[in-house]
Predict the structure.
Amino acid sequence: MRRRIILIVVILGVVGILASGIWWYVHSNSGQRLLSRVDLALHAQQYDKAGNLAESYIAKYPGDWQGYYLRAIAYNRMGKYPEARQQLDRILSSPGQMNCDEVAVRVQRSETYAQPVRHSTVMKEVSPQESSLQSAFAGMNQAVTELEPLQNVQGKGRLDVLESVAMNLIDMATISRRWARLQQDASQTARKVADQAKYEALRSSSKEKLSQAEQYDQRATQILLELVANDASRDEPAKALVELCLRRKDRESLEQARKAITALSDPPP
């Protein structure tokens, strides 16, 4: 009798372990659980793992935009920008866009053009090539263009769009100023060799680029003022706004920014 009881206990234990294993497997691979695991992998900078988990989610839920979106983020973080755009385009080209968060998708698509520029050496080189600056400017300009369909969006999504556009404009201004300095140096070389036509052309182009840079900075300032007025707790845009105002010696905008930021109960540094 005792042996029979022990046998029953062992069998029940084995069944319990099997049931727990099956429950864990099903639960760990459920939709929401998979999405959480993708997000965790992204935060841990395990982009290959995040991509694989997103792939598993897509296999189970091919009609849900979130799998493609998270896989696009993983690709973007790995520097696989065309692949990231391909995932995002699958969402945007689907019937009804898979009921996606269009702002999130288009902002991420914009980042596939902006990030390569920000991560490139052209933003740090002492003497970049003009062709590199031209390519970088085109990339940032495309990043801004990607967000044009969202210009009338409202709510929280609008603030996300404003932040993305403003940061891109600041980078466009930086590239334009670097390009202008490069042309100023080239114009002095042309002057030394008595090439008056080239000298004047370069000087004119340099002045135009400096003027464009100021316009980009001015537009970025206006956008950031609207953003900070609505949500001053966003550290990066608030910091960018203050730096812009200080560099441009724009005291009026700086005062508006100060009031919005210091009005918070716990303002950013």
Q: What stands out?
A: The chain is about 80% helix and 0% strand. Confidence is low (pLDDT under 50) at residues 14-28.
